Each structure stands twice: as structure tokens, then as C-alpha cells.
Fold this sequence. Notes:
Blueprint: E1 8-9, H1 13-17, H2 25-29, H3 32-42, H4 46-59, H5 64-76, H6 80-90, H7 98-110, H8 114-127, H9 132-138, E2 152-156, E3 165-171, E4 174-179, E5 198-202, E6 221-222, E7 241-242, E8 248-249, E9 259-260, E10 271-276, E11 282-287, E12 289-290, E13 293-294, E14 304-310, E15 316-319, E16 329-334, E17 340-345, E18 355-362, E19 367-368, E20 372-373, E21 384-389, E22 394-399, E23 409-416, E24 419-426, E25 437-442, E26 448-453, E27 460-466, E28 471-479, E29 490-495, E30 498-503, E31 509-514, E32 519-525, E33 529-530, E34 532-537, E35 545-555, H10 558-565, H11 567-573, E36 579-580, H12 593-605, E37 610-615, H13 623-643, E38 651-655, H14 673-679, E39 681-688, E40 691-692
Parallel strand pairs: 28-35, 37-38
Antiparallel strand pairs: 1-7, 2-27, 3-4, 4-5, 5-9, 6-8, 10-11, 11-14, 12-13, 14-15, 16-17, 17-18, 18-19, 18-20, 21-22, 22-23, 23-24, 25-26, 26-27, 28-31, 29-30, 29-32, 32-34, 33-35, 36-39, 37-39, 39-40
Helix pairs in contact: 3-4, 4-5, 5-6, 6-7, 7-8, 8-9
Amino acid sequence: MQLRKPLTIVFLSVLMCISIPFAEAQQIDNSPLLRKALTEYQSLRFTDAIRELKRVLEKDPENVSAQEMMAGSNRNIKDYDEAVRWYGELCKLKNIKPEWALYYAEALANKEKYEQSEQWYRKFLSMKPGDRRADAFSRTNFNSFSRNAGEYRVTYSSINTDASEYSPMYYKDGLIFVSNRSQKTRFVFQWDRTSYSDLYIVDKLEDITEANPDSTGKLVKESKPSKYIASNNSGTERSILSLFASNKIQTDEEESEPYLLRGKVKSSFHEGPSVLLPEGTLLFTRNNYVGGKAAKSNNGVNKLKLYTASGPGWNKITPFPYNNNEYSTGHPTVSQDGRILIFASDMPRGFGGTDLYYCVRTGDGKKWGRPTNLGPKINTEGNEQFPFLHKDGKLYFSSTGHPGLGGLDIFEVVLKDLKAVGSPKNIGIDINSSSDDFGFIMDGPAKSGYFSSNRRGNDDIYQFTRMEYTVTLKGKVIDAGTNVPIPGTRVILRNNGLTDTLVANFNGEFTRVLSKETDYELSGSRMSYVSRQSFLSTVGITADSTINVIVKLNRAENMQQWVSDNCETLKKTFSMDNIYYDLDQAEIRPDAIPTLDRIAVIMQKNPEISIISASHTDSRATDNYNRQLSLRRGEAARSYLISKGIDGRRIEVKYYGKSRLVNSCVEGVNCPETEQQMNRRTEFEVILNDVNITQLNCND
């Protein structure tokens, strides 16, 4: 199966990348292979550059210039495994460049290695103390991005193919979007050797349905390898994105419902994100090409520009008055009345990479006023792109500069008089991922919409529905033998590091409104009864619902009652210390060995007890990643005890990820590493006569 490459941002980052690897100019001059790789790299032909750099590194593995270009090339084509590898090698050197630390942090976040990513953001911040972006990322608690989990239901769209589809915009009763699905051209984009992108239209929203992500391959067929023709376009910027699709071709017999927007809007270059103005004019993004002529900047790059298409059949193409050969403009969105335009640009005197700007038009001539930067609350040292202005006054946009899960994340902020009210808010894990998420649009009632993401390795369009419902937990605690209610029982709910303690009323009943798309651990505890744990989930619930739970507690038998009666003594006798782990690691550290050896001795002397190895992480990665990391930690502790002669059947492994934090390292709290360390732990719970001594409350 051919790996499908994702889309990547190239608005300004290309120019940043091509300027960094050439400090050792003499070394390059003396190496013909390296000079050839440099030529490919400077021409933005990163796939070809990687091929040449492999040859260089085979002969000279320690060549820093080659390593740096290899890291930059893989970063640009979104091969994050290789980017992590090569930036990791660079960051082992004695004198590292600040941008290496930054790009290493970004690549680690793309691989959901958030703990390590935070450390390298801190390293970058120590080298660039004034960087607001690094400061924000280093203080971010990634757990906060899951607090609104379940607010959106996201599905894969039927308009996707094995090519790339992205950046949808409402058009009449349907959508207009960008795709490179047409492969019927000899001309290819030299960045990654794929077809240039065009605009496509689907007439009716109801024709866009939920699809199986693995079924889109039936829309395309394998084609014979095409003959690549550079056409002097190697220094061409893509419509803010660089396409990485497999070499496929769509046949006439398999024509999908969306159709190509032809006429003068279509060119042999990239057409990109667009918006329809109230008067029926199309404002769209394209490479610097108009009237059959292409132009380049002083350093040889064909920039991105905004154009209007007006007249019958959109046959009159007019450049946006504030285009410039030396910088890019693109990604337009307009207010409902068409008076305000917001777009992305890397024009000089911005805050970083690409910023968001606005223009206002007034009067009968409807001329756009000069662009104004939207300011430092929205724009950062990173890239802000793909704006969408909703009619309720909220601006949605994508950014690499505000704290997120990796790559571009989607944010929302209220605009009042074209100024941000408060700080932009990450819209959370329902829509954002560790990959690039962008091109967000929402309908008028704010109940549904579309966005783009390369989370599956290729740019695709997803549709979402905002969920408006309540999930309520109603429970009752009863004696398992008599079915009689047990009033006063403590019922504990745990999720995502939060603990909620309920007390059953006179009838043994309890109730609580639950978070959406969330897993819970529920336990009941009462003196003279054996505590019991169970699990429940709101994942997949999409309507008003009530979860009814009966918690049945077994009365303690004689031996169990003896354990309860001797609670404090047994707790002291079988007290076991925690062990701790390094950042993002599951290996047993030397300082944990004495603790594990002592536990092994206790178990050898007391064959009647068993233990639970309960492992945890801190909050700086996704739920899935942390659950797997905590499982590996629990298994490592178990394996060590088995190596000391303990029967593995006496050791149960439980893993909780980040759901049981021991301190206040939550959103908005800048936790030192010593406090983060306290969460990366394995606890040991002792079981005697089927009673968990460690969790037993001696005061019940």
C-alpha cells in the first residue's frame, strides 16, 4: 500500500526553511553531492532533496548541513517520524540552533509525545525568552483540550477521494472546495510531484453523506507513471498547502458528483480557498498568475495571490489591489453583508509567519480599504490561516502559534469592532488532532459544518454536528444479599484526573449530570461492606439519556470483617511506596529498585496477599497515548517482581493514564517538573481476603 503524504503549510515556512542550513558554506562547496542536494532543497523540491541527502549521509553520517536539510525536508512533507528522528539528532549536538528546538517540539507534538514536546518548547523559550508562542505552549495543560469532549459529532465526508480535498466554503445550496483529484495533466507541482489543485463544486449539501474512510479508493484507479514536466514552476507556492497524494487518476466511468469549476478561474497553477461575495463575485486564492503570465518574487518564488472573478461565467479575473510579488495573500472570508474581508498574509511587519488581516469596503465603488493586522491577541510568531467569519461575530481560524494538539489547530474568538474579545479558544479534541486541522466553516444556526484535516495522512473534508443533549447518571446502592438500600454510601466518580464524591441519600440513591464522550470509573464504599468498582461511559451517546446503575455491595464475611476491624494495623504493615518514571518512559529507574525489592520481600513472607500494580501518567498527552504508557509502566513493575520470584498470578495490572492526578497541575497552572513527576507513578494496592486494604477507609 502506497503511503499517502499529507498537505503541509508553505505560506512562509518554506522561506524560513531554505535559509537555515547553509552556515557551513565551505563544506558544501567542497562536496558535489551536497551541492546537488542544496539545489533541490533551495528549489523547494523536497522529495528530490531527500533522495540526494540520503546519498550524502551514507558517505558522511555526521554532516550537520545534510542532517539539517534532511530534517527540514521531512518537516515540509509532513513525514513526522523522520522529522523527529533528524531534529532529535541535531538536538544532541553541543551547540544547537533555537529553530531546531522549536521544530523538534512541533514534530514531537505531531506524534502526540506531548511531555517531550513541552520540554523542548521550554528549551526553545530559554533560547528565545521573548517568544510568546513558546511561553504559552510550555505552560499548556493538554488535558484542557478534552474538557468539552462530545460537543461535536464528526464524520468522514463522502466527497473525499484518494486525492486531497480541503478548505470547503458554502456556495449557494452546496459547497465549493479545493482538490487535486484531477490527474489529467502533464504538469506537476515540483515540491512533491503531485497535480496542481483546482476548485470543485457540489450543488447540494444533502448530497454529502457520511462515508467509510476506507471506501474512497473505489473512486480512483492506479495510473501509469506520468512523465514529470517542471514547466519552470519549481519555485511555486501551493495554495497555502502543499499536496501529497498518491499517483491516481479518476476515470470518466467513475466520475464523482462534485464537478470541476472551469472557465477563467481554472489555470495551470494552484487554485485555492475561496469565498462568494454577496454580489455574486468569487474571491479566490491562486498562484501569481493572471492574463496568461506568471510572476515571481525577487528570490524566485511564485507567491499566492487573491483574485476576484466577476461577470458572466466569472470570466473577468481581477487581482486584489493589495497583492504583491514579494509576499502572499490568500484564504479569504467575508462578513454576511460583504463589507468586511479577513484574509491571511505574510506581508512585512507582521507578528511572525502568516497573520490574519482585515479590509473594509464602503461607498458605491466598493473598493477595499488598506489591510489592517488583527493584532497580537490573534496573531502569533507562528502561522494564523484559514479564517472563517460566522454571522454571530465569532472568528474561527487555524494556528500553529496558539497552544494546540500539534500542527494546525482550529480556534474561535469573538470579534467586537474587529478586535478580539478575550483570548482565542482551542475548540477541543472532537475536531482538533495532532495533525493539521483547518478550513472550518459552520452554518448560520451554528449546529453543523465542515472542516479539513490530514489526520489520515491525506487531506480530507469532515462534517460535524454540534451535540445538544444531556446525559444523566441515576444510581442506587443496595445490599447484594437482601436488596435493601444502603444509605450514606460514598460513591466516587473518577474521570480525566477529576474526582467527584457523592453520598447516597436515605433511599440509597444518587444522581449526577455526566460529561459527554467521557469514560468514568465508579466505586462504592461503606464500612462492613466490600468496596466494588465498575465502569461506565457516555461515549457514543448522542441524545438526551439517563444511565441507570445499581451498585450491589457484598457484606463482608468473617475474614473480610476481620480485615476491616484491623484496618489501621494492616495498612501500616502492608504500606508500599510508589515508584516513579522519567518523562515519557516506562523503564524501571535505579531509584525504584529498592522499593520493588522490599515489595518482593513482603509478598514472599505473606503468600496470602496479592497486589494491584496501578500506574499513571501526567496530563500532557492524549487519553489513548497515556493509557498505553501507563499500561507499559504497570507491566514493567510486574515483570520486575516476577524476576524476583513472585508468582505473576498474584499481581494484577491496572492502568489509568492521566485520569488520577495527585496535584493541581491543571489548566492555567504552570507546574514545575517536580510536580509533574509526582503524577508519573505506579502505586501498589494490597488485597487480603478479597479486601483492598489500600483503598479501605478505616473511618467508615
